[in-house]
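Input record (Table S2, row 235):
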Amino acid sequence: MTSLQAAARTDVGRVRDNNEDAVLCMDHLVAVADGMGGHPGGEVASNLAVSLLEAAFSGDSLKELESAVRAANRAVAERAAASRDLEGMGTTLCAIGVIEDGRLAVVNVGDSRAYLMRDGSLRQLTDDHSITGELIRRGELTEQEAASHPHRSVLTRALGCGPEVDVDGSLHSAAEGDRLLLCTDGLFNEVAEDDIPSLMGGAQEVRPVADALVEQALSNGGRDNIAVVVAEVRA
Ligand code: MG
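Output record (magnesium ion complex):
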């Protein structure tokens, strides 16, 4: 039976006062979420999203994981509407679940990312739902330019902004030893994509890999909250 050996780490960073990123780290489901909306909304939104995802996903199918994301969206939106303190809150949500046939179900809303590293090469499994992500897909901006673009954190999709949300979902085969990375923009805006493969392959265990990624983001500036989950596939 396919499962994940996973380690998560999140850090407030060097500039922010509170950490609005959240992580979920289980043997069949991993997730990161990057909340927004100020204190306390951002924290509430990201933590609510990952805990609802956990509650609603049993490992059945991609469809089940996608509907868990839609349920999380409704819950965040309802909570935001019910409290003045939480008005305008929202969150990204990016998750990978192992489903019954052993494949990986990947879901994403917002600009957090999932990567797969197989045989030393790294591939992003998700599209960023951000203004810069769309400009990159249209060929109008490079990845490098995006990291310092003034609109790099403006999202085109997020959880909690309305009763319905478009969820990107995809299925991927999994092989023993594949490594997965989930991360928020606090990681990929600080650590160049070219530097990620050597960090991902830098240790036998996943825990020191997660630590090394966060340490690298901190030493490159740590200008945002940072969240990473590193997982290895056990087939
Ligand atoms: Mg962020």
